[in-house]
Structure formats: structure tokens, C-alpha cells
Specification:
By secondary structure, this protein is of the alpha+beta class. It has helices at 22-33, 60-70, and strands at 37-42, 50-51, 57-58, 73-81, 92-100. It has a single domain (18-100), classed as Rossmann fold, CATH 3.40.50. Strand 2 and strand 3 form a beta hairpin.
């Protein structure tokens, strides 16, 4: 299985995995395209602290939100499990719901199913 470096499924857990920077490439596209609203989705491991290359411990999710705020976006981060929305499997994902300043920030969807 080929997983991202911050995924729990990646047993090699390579800190220098180039796929880890996909978030920052995406943020550059957001900066270029300037959408009113967008949603980023990834694994909860994005919140795991690590050295992002500047010698300080941080995590991809927090760094991503900082960069998005710097370019004029407000963000809401939420962890959701697909099973709470009708999927037959537990599949937890991290979502960043973002809107440009001045645009109402969408609310977090409420679960539609009971997750035992």
C-alpha cells in the first residue's frame, strides 16, 4: 500500500515523503484561484506534531490553517467518521472547511446515522 507520510497506514513514516507537501501545493492553488469556499480532506495524522523543516515542531494541519489565514481565509477544522453519515465502514477523515474573509463560513454537517 502506498500511503502518505502522515498516514497511520504508512509504517515507514518517512518524514521527507514528498507527498506530505501536497497540502502546501494545494494552498498555492487556492491562492491563485481565490475560491469563495473550499474543503480540504485528509487523514487525521495531519495533526500529528513533527518538524516541518524549519526546526520547530508543528503539524501540517495547523501550518496549513496559518497559511490559509495569511492569504485571507477563515477555516474550521473537524474530524468526521464516514460511518456517522451512512457508510458501512469506520473511515475517519480530517476536514478543513474554509471561506474567504467576508464570506459566511459553512457549518459542520451533523451526523445522519448513529455510529455504535
Amino acid at each position: 500500500m502506498d500511503s502518505q507520510g502522515h498516514s497511520g497506514a504508512n509504517h515507514q513514516n518517512k518524514m521527507d515523503d514528498p507527498r506530505n507537501s501536497e497540502l502546501f501545493v494545494t494552498i498555492e492553488e487556492v491562492k491563485r484561484l481565490k475560491p469563495d469556499i473550499f474543503i480540504l480532506e485528509n487523514v487525521p495524522g495531519m495533526k500529528r506534531d513533527r518538524d516541518l523543516g524549519d526546526g520547530e515542531a508543528s503539524n501540517y494541519a495547523v501550518e496549513g490553517i496559518k497559511r490559509l489565514r495569511d492569504i485571507g481565509y477563515q477555516c474550521r477544522m473537524v474530524q468526521l467518521d464516514a460511518r456517522s453519515f451512512g457508510s458501512p465502514q469506520n473511515r475517519t477523515r480530517l476536514f478543513m472547511i474554509c471561506a474567504r474573509q467576508g464570506v459566511p463560513l459553512p457549518s459542520v454537517p451533523q451526523p445522519t446515522h448513529v455510529n455504535p
